[in-house]
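User: Assemble these into one structure.

Assistant: Restating your components, then the assembled model:
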Amino acid sequence: MTTELRIAVLGVGMMGADHVARITSTITGARVAVVNDYVSEKAHELAATIPGCRVVEDPLDAIADPEVDAVVLATPGPTHEKQLLACLEHGKPVMCEKPLTTDVATSLAVVEAEAALGKKLIQVGFMRRFDTEYDQLKALIDSGELGRPLVVHCAHRNPAVPPHFDSAMIVRDSLVHEVDVTRFLLDEEITSVQIISPSANPSAPQGLRDPQIAIFTTESGRHVDAEVFVTTGVAYEVRTEVVAEHGSAMIGLDVGLVRKSAPGTWGGTITPGFVQRFGQAYDTEIQRWVDAVKAGAETGNYVDGPGAWDGYAAAAVCEAGAKSLESGAPVAVEMVQRSSIAGA
Amino acid sequence: MTTELRIAVLGVGMMGADHVARITSTITGARVAVVNDYVSEKAHELAATIPGCRVVEDPLDAIADPEVDAVVLATPGPTHEKQLLACLEHGKPVMCEKPLTTDVATSLAVVEAEAALGKKLIQVGFMRRFDTEYDQLKALIDSGELGRPLVVHCAHRNPAVPPHFDSAMIVRDSLVHEVDVTRFLLDEEITSVQIISPSANPSAPQGLRDPQIAIFTTESGRHVDAEVFVTTGVAYEVRTEVVAEHGSAMIGLDVGLVRKSAPGTWGGTITPGFVQRFGQAYDTEIQRWVDAVKAGAETGNYVDGPGAWDGYAAAAVCEAGAKSLESGAPVAVEMVQRSSIAGA
Amino acid sequence: MTTELRIAVLGVGMMGADHVARITSTITGARVAVVNDYVSEKAHELAATIPGCRVVEDPLDAIADPEVDAVVLATPGPTHEKQLLACLEHGKPVMCEKPLTTDVATSLAVVEAEAALGKKLIQVGFMRRFDTEYDQLKALIDSGELGRPLVVHCAHRNPAVPPHFDSAMIVRDSLVHEVDVTRFLLDEEITSVQIISPSANPSAPQGLRDPQIAIFTTESGRHVDAEVFVTTGVAYEVRTEVVAEHGSAMIGLDVGLVRKSAPGTWGGTITPGFVQRFGQAYDTEIQRWVDAVKAGAETGNYVDGPGAWDGYAAAAVCEAGAKSLESGAPVAVEMVQRSSIAGA
Amino acid sequence: MTTELRIAVLGVGMMGADHVARITSTITGARVAVVNDYVSEKAHELAATIPGCRVVEDPLDAIADPEVDAVVLATPGPTHEKQLLACLEHGKPVMCEKPLTTDVATSLAVVEAEAALGKKLIQVGFMRRFDTEYDQLKALIDSGELGRPLVVHCAHRNPAVPPHFDSAMIVRDSLVHEVDVTRFLLDEEITSVQIISPSANPSAPQGLRDPQIAIFTTESGRHVDAEVFVTTGVAYEVRTEVVAEHGSAMIGLDVGLVRKSAPGTWGGTITPGFVQRFGQAYDTEIQRWVDAVKAGAETGNYVDGPGAWDGYAAAAVCEAGAKSLESGAPVAVEMVQRSSIAGA
């Protein structure tokens, strides 16, 4: 498919609206063709800001729409089952924000329906699998260098949660990420769960069991513990440590992946070259330049970054540097005054 | 401009080809419409892989082409002057890889020509200004919290350089980034340069003055020193420390921006929320899903990430978790065997 | 007491011999007056190297000895009860390596005997309470800045253990330190313990349950978990994190105490002055100089550190520096050749 | 010499008084026998607090005193020459705070006088050579693992200086430490010095050239730069980075020695065992216990640390732990109430 993927985003609350912005401004090869929301005005307001985007009032109609190639599901969990089955029915690939559905039986029904179809159409929004640090940790485990993973320690901390957040949501909405991280990193299923509710944070809302400690046992008997604490007042902290047969590795310490290995060293990896170190910078440079060029017709300024004067100044300094390289002595930089060139 | 920006990439060596891939796969709102290279076959090979991309044999023709909206210049430095002037003549925005031109006089001529035009069309590829860490450092300086910057220490280390790299290239190709970083961070011009060549690295090629120490003085008398060392054998390391009136801050220590402030603390900032922490993960998640969906017609697999089974497994674990939340005791996870569902 | 404390060290295996060396070479105000060991030759060999030290063959005689002011107990645990009671009987202060005694009933008997005496004579060798990092962590908790501690995570890792180490010793000899750390940091008793034995490290000796996860509940319902893993193959790692109402703090990350606080910062503390930064250096400097002076009569060299030449060289460089301070230009250092002064 | 070294401390200002306290409370095998100061009352006050310590009014008499074995010189620099020569004359080992003398000619005279004597009696107080981190850095260089050191970067920052501190004192009193560090780490002399005075810190006292940048060249042509900045307002920061042929290493980042090596790793070393990790804790434990025992006669409390109750509590928790090790289930800890034992 060389043309742009036409996506319907169903549900444009915080998460859905964020996906709409992402697809429009960041993702290449796709565009938001349809939006839909339970609150119709919200959908209309958003559609008006996206070229070529229209509102379809019924989510099932949006899924069935022949001008829609794929679906992003950011609707409330209870509607997921019906909408996912509709996607399967119409053969539409769907990226479904967690949860898949709100209970085990309907989740299984969706798995079975997709399996019966013989095509994998459903992706679930466990985005940590796409995080650079989790990727590095998974790659390190898979490399075998650490040997068999034995224990995993997780911490998941939010500064605050909305007023309606209750103890069970800590399990279903927060801990669920640690569930997927465990399954992703260890490549096996969880067989037993224990939730410990210690004496609660006095700063948490009355009745909220926070923090909670979850203990998972996996098929092969590995131990995972996860602290979930959603009223820390500090910031958003996510940390995972894998303790393995020949060493351990931790992410989420604000310092990248830190590894401990025999014979007694700790540390990380330095980027091997400028492509790895500045890849993000190059992407941002070009994206912002493209955006500036598109906006430039109105302002006469087609640049969003260093301009010709900056190139000239660099040349003048390097010229002085090249002279000093010969003599070793300080060399004055010769430059015209910027103000001497009107418009520079 | 709501349609895609049509870009001509001139020069498709390592840097140019990298920009072609970037614009094609990562950048939204633009596409590579034209490629050109001194080695015509290289341009043709590359164009064949990009939908809607053609080769224009003469770079000046490519610049003049009415179906080209903007230009990326990745040609050898000596050709820049003529090509930049052509871009100005045709009113085409141009993103020019460093150097602007290869000497001071021609750089000034380009600045003057653009100034005379009254439109800013030229951007220079000093990509560090778009790096997250440099951005944070600049923002911290501009916030005024550190007071007046007094001294800047830079280190720029490469594991190795190609055989043709000579002592002057260390100044013109490597140190030039520290020149721009200095001007970017301090917002003033460099007035004097000294290059010190200490006893050379015995592991460096015979005759290469490596490492070199550059000392810059700025208009207001600030001191900048920069170690440039291109045969370290280690990795790619770029470090900048700003020492200011009320504290200091360093980037490039593999741990993000680290700041020292009164009354005697060191440290960094934690991401305030999941949007900041996992923004990259969300972008990657959706981009890879879009790519997978586009490729899916052939394979029957439209997902590149966690699927319906992963959603089901998470539901089953959370269900057990919700039960354990009540009892505090371990609860077995109830799941069907994956192998019992053909195709799951 | 202005004279030196005369200490009897009972048991001179690894730990006891280490204490003998410590008291002799490092501790001021005390000396080892008596040593004793089940293996008499070992005691005699050691005593011969310590000026004024003699062997007493029976540990109870050593305790009763009128020329002994205090006792260090490094004998096997099963002998502790009788020896501690003897210390109490003779009013001798005793520093007892862990365990106090080998079971709960005898430990209680010792507590009761000391209480009946009305004098606190017994100290137990939980040395972590004297570690700089644990001290900093305790001080931070006690300052109240973090609010109420809610959860504590501990990790205790050894690269390897001797062949006789069994699963219960992981509890009694390793975990016991986390028991004391918990009581020290939280200032309350532990009311419940759970030991989880996950799938064992394949590299551990057959039958050893390693790693183990301990879960403590305290009087006020706080949760503590501790991973004890004694066959990591890596190094000696001890880590403790306290998660509290208004922030968290961790020690044992090879980077000192790292603290997370609102509104989203992480970091540590810089030494406020040279006394704190170089206090250890000053102590070592003077101790090694004292030792060198004492040994100097034989060698004619009474220094163990920088000598007069180093002072001269520093003067010469600073002289050149003071001249350069005026001119800003490089100034050659003028020094005589060291070889021109015989004996310098 | 098995008896205590009798030391005369000349000059009991801040540094001298600190050494008196150190020798009295921390150093084993030595005591302060004599103190002397230009301000006689200060000496008398201090002597009154030290058992067996007396005042000698003339520093030369103190040096000559037959009951003095060695001298610590903490007098003003201008008196050093005469006092050092007196130490040499009487064959007294002397630990001389920097500077050796206040100018190059007299420093040389002292070197020559000691050389003529044929005995090394003079040590200079460059205490950084005894700092653990500098020791580790020196050991790493000497191991040859990093190859030839090529460049050294130093930073030396004070939060503030006394009002009389002038620009030359930054060279003679602060930079002098970097002079010695350079000579210590590189094992060669400095041949040239340049002091650069950039635009001064607006927060520094009027007229103080602060910060200053020093550049040293060594005999073999190596480059050292040192930022000295004494009015940072932050804290006491000392940092040294050695950039060598096969890697680099830095100390002073608040995280111990951090090393960068091929093929692209950064990190440090974990303590190999509990002796290294907790050596300081053991020393402190025993020293504080010795001090507490000596003070105990008056209070009836001979412990300064965990007591018998702590040993009992640990036994009770470990007993529960050993039971849980068998069952895997939580086990309640059985303990008597502490309040049930009067005096416990």
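The first strand of chain A starts at residue 5 and ends at 10.
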